[in-house]
Please model this.
Amino acid sequence: MSFAQTTQDGLMMSKNELCLVLNYDKESWNQYWEGERLRNNLNIGTLSTQMASFMAAYGVTEKLNVFAVLPYIKNEASAGTMTGLQGVQDLNVAAKYNFFSYGKMQLFGVIGASVPVTNYVPDFLPFSIGLHSKTASARLIVHQLLPYGIHITAQGGYIARSKTKVDRTNYYTGNEIEYSHEMAVPDQVSTSLRIGMNKKAVLAEAFIDNITATSGTDIRRYDMPLPANKMDWTRVGVFVTWHTPIENFSVNGHFSHVIAGRNVGKVEASYGAQLQYILNFKKKK
Model:
């Protein structure tokens, strides 16, 4: 039995297996952190974001998997006159390698990159569908199996981000005036801890994820956010994958909630579902 896997878990596709995933997510918030101050904005009301994405994962070898993800994002506000944005965002690619195993412990390394594929607007937060910044990332994952089908997965990584181009010749970051049409986007440190159980046809996990920017400024009082802001968040959630009676076909459901943040929306509910199908290209004898 094969479970589809991601760049953040302790699972691997077998050699010559191709996993195709259709994903849908929706989240909403009506409060956000302006620096460390939690507030609301009646000109926005509740901001809702929907994302549909397609992912493909392929087992090059038993130890090396590659990934590609392309999302489409749409958002809208319940109040005010500003119109939400929508479009295809960034193409994300990654490679995951299992380079060390000892007993029931495994160590993985992941490298990845992303690049915008459309000319969407980055400097219209919180309505922008992305920051239009190229990224490069590296991550280490430790996966430990325990008795009774329980496992613990911990990961830590670094995301380097390029500057983004904005439609203005100068801007005020909150500290000083920058005379440029380019804006620095802060790098990020990513960490997570997952505890789960794999029993027969069901894989269930509870998780806590954190993103911390290494630099950046706070949103100025009653001002719009900037791509240069320091955006931090911590979220908790659960997801469950069911391997259906249909061979190689799985269904995933997930839910999360942001419990802390800085210069981001306080997402009360983020939920979604995935359809996963695995094709096996192994040569039959």
About this structure: The two ends are 20 Å apart (CA to CA).
